[in-house]
Specification:
The protein is α/β, with parallel strands linked by helices. Helices cover about 45% and strands about 10% of the residues. It has helices at about 5-10, 30-45, 60-65, 100-110, 125-145, 150-160, 165-170, 175-180, 185-190, 200-205, 250-270, 275-290, 295-305, 305-320, 330-335; strands at about 25, 50-55, 75-80, 90-95, 115-120, 220-225, 225-230. Helix 7 packs across helix 8 (about 175-180), helix 8 crosses helix 10 and helix 13 (about 295-305) crosses helix 14.
């Protein structure tokens, strides 16, 4: 009887047999010095052409590879949680990563049943790069006094599989704090009009981790062996300075969260983090569940019309400042009545 993939896996606490492997995929603690140390250890054990693939969700691959004997063989393979359910694999390359390393990891991803995109090394890579401003805007809405249940309901009604606040609970507040700090914070903190929110670290310090701790932005209860989301945890508002309730329309909620994500996607395209808009669409849908009915962020903008997207961004720029300032590429394309060119 043939063994399943799981049955072929071997658990061990040493490097026995690593001299015969061609690819090492690491998913150890998110600490740069620890990962660099691992590379050095493996270089003394594995064959000289082995590929080191990191599952980091935020650490820069360029820095990780700078002391490697063969930086061309250092690459990112960013899986999304839960790995068994999330179909996307984000392959991250540096300016030195070889085509062979990229192709090898791409083939591994395909054999694992993943949909793969290749992106350039940058803070947040692509998926977390566009996700963070979206989640941050949801947190700013809470800080303003908008109720959590309205935020999540509005985005779900638009077509997101889960609301942004519930998503933080699902991923884990600890993970959210990690991803939205470090080089991502460095990237956005000095942007004109950006206001950071520091509520989640306070929540984490108080022991709130989301679903995994059965308490986060929502309460969670165990039923028949499964953890179910309950009502909003009203106690979390204290970490947002207990704002008075603010009533705004669902349209404003969805537009503020979605538009800031779309602008970031265009920014990533401008900077060459993604090489084409099709990868941007795939990453959006399969990485964060961006409005599946739309086909992805760039397809969505094509459907709504770039001039309409531009008008709404300018509207919120007038209300809430330059964090909604449209990217130059978007302005230029809208002025020419162009659309993003999709590959099928």
């Amino acid at each position: 009887m043939a063994k399943t993939t799981a049955q072929r896996a071997i658990g061990q606490l040493d490097y026995k047999g690593f001299d015969k492997v061609d690819v090492v995929v690491e998913a150890i603690v998110e600490n740069m010095s620890v990962k660099k140390k691992l590379i050095k250890e493996l270089e003394g054990i594995c064959n000289e052409d082995f590929i080191f693939a990191s599952n980091t969700s935020s650490l820069p691959l360029t820095e990780m590879s700078e002391d490697a004997k063969k930086p061309e063989n250092v690459v990112g393979m960013h899986y999304f949680s839960p790995v068994t359910k999330m179909p996307l694999l984000e392959i991250i390359k540096t300016s030195k990563t070889s085509n062979q390393a990229i192709a090898t990891c791409y083939e591994i991803g395909k054999r694992q049943g993943k949909t793969c995109i290749v992106v350039n090394d940058a803070p947040g890579f692509y998926v977390n790069r566009i996700l963070c401003p979206y989640l941050l805007e949801a947190l700013i809405l809470i800080e303003e006094g908008v109720r959590i249940e309205q935020i999540d309901r509005a985005l779900k009604n638009l077509g997101m599989p889960v609301g942004p606040v519930a998503l933080i609970d699902e991923v884990g507040i600890d993970v959210g704090v990690h991803v939205m700090s470090g080089n991502m914070t460095d990237l956005i903190k000095d942007r004109d009009g950006i206001k950071l929110n520091y509520s989640m670290p306070k929540m984490l310090e108080a022991g709130l981790e989301g679903r995994k701790s059965k308490k986060g932005f929502y309460h969670y209860v165990s039923k028949k062996g499964k953890v179910k989301k309950g009502k909003v945890n009203e106690g979390v508002y204290q970490y947002f300075d207990s704002p008075n309730v603010k009533k705004i329309s669902d349209k404003e909620i969805t537009e503020r969260c979605i538009l800031i994500l779309l602008n970031e996607a265009v920014w990533a395209l401008e900077e060459g983090i993604i090489e084409n808009v099709t990868d941007g669409d795939i990453g959006g849908v399969f990485g964060i569940g961006f409005l599946p009915w739309s086909g992805g962020p760039f397809s969505y903008m094509n459907q709504i019309g770039l001039s309409n997207i531009l008008d709404r961004m300018k509207h919120y720029q007038n209300l809430y400042g330059n964090k909604f300032q449209p990217r130059p590429m978007l302005v230029k394309m809208a002025d020419k009545n162009e659309k993003f060119e999709l590959f099928t």
